[in-house]
Amino acid sequence: MDSKRGFSTIMLVFFIFTAFFLIIILGSFFFGFQLFNDTASGINVTLGTQNFAEEYQKTVGRGFNAILSAIITSSVALLLGMVLMMLLVSYKFRSDNFILIPLDLFIVVAAFITAVYISTAFDSFINANSIFIDVFTINLQVASKFVLNLPIIVTITGALIMLVHYLPLKRREPNVLQFN
Fold first, then answer.
1. Cα-based angle 115, 121, 124 (whole degrees, multiple of 5)
2. What is the largest CA-CA distance in the chain?
3. pLDDT-based confidence at 1, cuts 50/70/90?
4. Torsion from C-alpha of 69, 72, 73, 77, nearest 10 degrees
5. CA distance 90 to 71
6. Residues 6 or more apart from 61 whose CB is under 8 A from it?
7. Other Cβ atoms within 10 Å of 8 Cβ, number
8. What's the whole-model pTM score?
9. Which pLDDT tens digit goes with each residue over 27-61?
10. Secondary structure class of 21 (helix, strand, coil)
11. Which of the residues 10, 37, 62, 171 has the least number of beta carbons within 10 Å of its own beta carbon?
12. Tens digits of residue pLDDT in 74-89
């Protein structure tokens, strides 16, 4: 397991880019679903005795509303799940070799610098268009705050990963039966 050295802290860099692209993709899906839902709800055509907009809201519209609320919830769950997985992996590959702490600190600092760049790019992306402002600040508010606060989250997560990784917990030896 010593060959996995640096794996737990280098995951911070992958986390930053994954969080950024995940929120962009989920925001695009949210925008597309909401645009289709609003357009289909606005069709005011009566076919026989049925109004299309009313029937749409009773059937397909409920499904689209469920998808829209699921996107909001799943975006936060995926981001927090990534943080939890990084902590679990660092616990699994913990080490007693304290010489590599400066390397881990360097990785955390590099991840912090990358996170500042990504959160600034995300802020510029959100403010580029009024539609993006509505989607990301009103509908995906928690996930957007997560990406905008990515430098703070990366620093805290990096410190927790290093703490868990170098925490001197005794490993339990496998219970092996010995026959004499």
1. 145
2. 90
3. very low
4. 160
5. 29
6. 37, 40, 41
7. 25
8. 0.72
9. 888 888 888 888 888 888 888 888 888 888 888 88
10. helix
11. 171
12. 888 888 888 888 888 7
